[in-house]
Write a structure and sequence with these properties.
globular, alpha+beta, 191 residues, binds zinc ion, single chain
Length: 191
Amino acid sequence: MRRLLLALPFALLPLAALAAEHSHEHDHAHDHAEHSSLDAHEHGAAQLNVVLDGKVLELQLESPAMNLVGFEHAAKSDADKAKVAAARSQLEQPQPLFGLNAGDCQISKQELESPLFAEHKHEEHHDHDSEHSDIHAHYTLDCQKPEELKQLNLGELFKRFPATEKIQVQLIGPNGQQGMELTPAQPTLSF
Ligand SMILES: [Zn+2]
């Protein structure tokens, strides 16, 4: 039941193991329909959890690699390796990606995980055409002026990663919990 664990906010999971289970043919959604938004690895869709607690802002993005890199196999060619490196370098700058230009926030911790980022080839997970790979990004920021954080704005993320069509956002902030699907046409959510 690893997929249930996916629903836990900020659970840190071994993505290499999860990627092996991802399948577009997965048809057991009825078994846990309550988690349907997290159940499928759907190209074009991603999930983002955001928690603002005092001065600590945490963001956790879970996306099919397809949305961010354009493929999901291990990068072997120089061109593919360059695409992975470019996506990674964008993901290393969460403030512009998530529109966090207020609040005086500094990154205190960041983790980027994906089978595509692995130093060594995980051949057991990449030998099959049907394999899918995710990219997981987890950021912790310390914000000196959290009251000035008015909204999340994913416009830049959608612009830089145009294969991303929609992001299901769960946000917990001073005004409680909100869930919303953000798109290029509606990229913002207030804290
Ligand atoms: Zn996929």
